[in-house]
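Repro:
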Amino acid sequence: MENVFNVNGLPFWSEKEIRVRNRLMEHNTAEVRSILLNENPAWQFVQCEAPLLTPRSVLNVNYTDDDIWAQAVLDTETPLALRPETTPGSYAYAAWVMSHNSQVKPPLVVWQAGKSFRREQDQVTKNMRLKEFYQQEFQCIYTADTLNDYHSAVLEPLRRMVAEVIHMPVRIVESDRLPSYSEVTMDLEVDNGDKWMEVASISRRNDFPTKVSFDTRKGRVEKDVKVLEIAIGLDRLVYNYMLASQR
């Protein structure tokens, strides 16, 4: 990665680094699928790609203009912003696909990989506080009365998943921030020789915007849902992968 524009947080990625990112994304997808199916073979998986420009109305209220790249709008326009995370798009698509296809119901994973944008403070490259970055996020939607503690079950398998490709020490730590939507958030951090760097977060979210209706053997039911969110920083994985490969 090179700072061609000479602006902190806006790196250029080489062809080799792009190939690594694509391979890591494919690896993550296969491993997350295997981990979840091992817990419950009923999981369904749907990939989507939501617009980068997202209506302000669906963003988490904790994101202010100090955090995001928001559009200046006329009175007749819908207020938009470059998304600070892929979650709102995945939620919207999950609700849409479940309402349009009776075969799609919890437990359901809607996932996507793409760019997100935040107003990060200017920092040197080794801190990887990027203003524009690639995320891979899996929104794993299940009914709130589910007895399986998916969050606890996936932590160690996900740690091993990262360690297998980065070849650096990886630890599970409690996040130093607990977003309002999260009941619990744990981070995966990599010891890259300079610092312990967060490369993924695993949260149990309670902010899916609607109840979910679907057919069962006993008839149609409506239930609250919770979400296991697996959020992976692809750029940070690439950065640490390249560091490890140079040693």
